[in-house]
Amino acid sequence: MAEVKVFNGVDDLKANVGIELGPTDWFEVTQDAVNMFADATGDHQWIHIDVEKAKQGPFGGTIVHGFMTLSLLPMFSPMLSTIENVGLDDRGRGHRQAVCVARMLSVVVP
After folding, report:
1. Is residue 57 a contact partner of residue 47, using CB atoms and an 8 Å limit?
2. How do residues 11-33 score in pLDDT, each as one tens digit?
């Protein structure tokens, strides 16, 4: 694993846009983890969960959901960088909207 980059505040972070971070430690994605992600998201496409059918598919086996890959970013983030000298107001940018805590959702895409 590479050394964790420490940014001293938001301005330091902005000044370093574009720098390379990493690599992180390796993380093994198991079929069980993919299956649990499929159950959690309701995305049960064969290319993700049907090992036998996927062997005949374009990749020779199952593939990880794209959103599962993205969902691993919070796990990798502390291996890459940390931001010091920021308050909640600084870190909260973009997260000041209401958070849905409902048990049921419906989505409309205009």
Report:
1. yes
2. 998 999 999 999 999 999 999 99
What does each C-alpha distance from 66 to 37, 48, 60, 88, 110 come to in angstroms? 11, 10, 17, 30, 23
Distance CA 31, CA 66 (A): 14
For domain 5-91, the CATH class is alpha beta
- How far apart CA 110 and CA 106 sit, in angstroms, is 13
The pLDDT score that the predictor gives to residue 88 is 58
Residues 6+ apart with CB under 8 A from 72: 27
Q: Is the pTM of this model over 0.90?
A: no
Q: Give me the residue spans of the domains in the chain.
A: 5-91
* Residue 63 near residue 50 (C-beta atoms within 8 A): no
